[in-house]
Amino acid sequence: MTTRLRLGLVSAARITPPAIIEPLATGDDRLADVAVTVLGARDRARAADAASRWDVPTVVDTYDDVWTHRDVDAVYIATPAGYHHEHTLAALAAGRHVLCEKPIASNAVEAAEMVEAARDARLVLMEAFHWRHHPLVAQMRRIIDSGELGEIRHADARFVLPDGHIPRTDIRWDATIGGGSLMDLGCYPVQWVRWLFGPEPAVVRADAVESIPGIDGRITAELVWPGGRTASIESSMIGPDTVGDSRLVVHGSEGTLTVNNPLAPQFGGAVTVSTAAGDRTEDVDPSATYLHQLVRFRAAVLDGADPITHGDDSIQTMRTIDEIYTRAGLQPRPSRR
User: Fold this and answer.
1) DSSP for 281-292?
2) pLDDT, tens digit, for every residue of 119-157?
3) Most buried residue, 54, 136, 229, 334, by CB count within 10 Å?
4) CB–CB of 54/38 below 8 Å?
5) Vertex 163: Cα angle to 158 and 169 (nearest 5)
6) Domain ranges of the chain
7) Contact, 149 vs 257, CB < 8 A?
């Protein structure tokens, strides 16, 4: 099949192989007309090394050379969050569709500007919350909507990594480019509970551990929605245990749904329903979240499908993150400009 969607890679980041290279390597028919054509990174030698390993035919000197290249229709932006605003606006101005890593921006103001620019240009801007495209989402919704849990009242959501898993030299400890546990890890629990209860929660409490001044090594928050539903979230880059914990627990008047690793169910995802009748486990589709994400991005660009993780959803995620930081006595992540 002739290539119809030519992707340029903005950065040679660690996330790029699972997000782009590996899904394309599966040979999935739904991606048969998608190809990576160009790669650019901060350092050309690093870009050339990645291009050789990933079989990307063209290496360019700068990020700008990616989104202006004649062989690029859309870009995947995997630079640190603090650069997403600048890079996305430039790519959109060059007429390229954008798949941008999460979180979409440093703060809600930036997110709104990016969304408006994409709408004005009539281009796809999709945020790379890969979990949202997996069949597990429909599985969770089926259980919740079945009524067996009764009235849904509360949820607990957490993403915790052991202390040392993210070394202090990592960019995720740098506030000036969008660092912090809430930005890197907690954006997932924020989106899980917003998917569950609605887009606009109020943050009634938040507490942070500043492992580095201005950077949340750990943060917790309590959220409430109109009608009284509540959620507790936690993110941490300084977890006390030797293994991480990614989990969503949904509490109803008649039972509980526990989802282990809703972030990436291909790596040990599990679903358990607990009611008065006992515990029931359900198998989880083992396919990669990133495969489903790339299939959706292709469909959004070429077929006009709903990108799902875009627009107001992206803005509201950042508004909630900003409010959590403020409630915790920290500043929302600053814009670089």
Assistant:
1) EE----S-HHHH
2) 999 999 999 999 999 999 999 999 999 999 999 999 999
3) 136
4) no
5) 115
6) 5-129, 135-286
7) yes
Q: Is the pTM of this model over 0.90?
A: yes
- Mapped onto helix, strand or coil, the DSSP state of residue 51 is helix
Task: Please give the Cα distance from 104 to 92 (Å, whole number).
Answer: 14
Express as a percent the part of the chain with pLDDT over 70: 99
Distance, in Å, from the CA atom of 260 to the CA atom of 243, rounded to the nearest integer, reads 13
- Stretches where the chain sits below pLDDT 70 are 1, 337
Inter-residue contact 289 to 235 (CB < 8 Å): no
User: Which pLDDT belongs to residue 1?
Assistant: 56
- Of 119, 118, 68, 74, nearest to 96 (Cα)? 74
Tell me what pLDDT residue 2 has: 72
* Cis, peptide link before residue 213, omega less than 30° from 0: no
* CA diameter of the chain: 62
Residue whose tokens read 């709903």: 306
What is the rounded distance in angstroms from the CA atom of residue 221 to the CA atom of residue 203?
Answer: 7
Count CB-CB contacts under 10 A for residue 86. Answer: 18
Half-sphere exposure of 175 (CA within 13 A, CB side): 14
pLDDT at 176 (0 to 100):
92
Instruction: Give the CATH superfamily of 135-286.
Output: Dihydrodipicolinate Reductase; domain 2 (3.30.360.10)
Rg of the chain over Cα atoms, rounded to whole angstroms, equals 20
Query: Can you spell out the DSSP letters for 161-190?
Result: EETTSS-TTSGGG-GGGT-SHIIIIIHHHH
* Residue 12, H or E segment: none
Same CATH fold, 135-286 and 5-129? no
The CATH class of the 5-129 domain is: alpha beta
Q: Do the beta carbons of residue 142 and residue 51 sit within 8 Å?
A: no
Other C-beta atoms lying within 10 Å of the C-beta of residue 214: 17
| Residue 91 token pair | 């790519």
| Euclidean distance between CA atoms 73 and 301, whole angstroms | 9
Asked if residues 285 and 136 have their Cβ atoms less than 8 Å apart, the reply is: yes
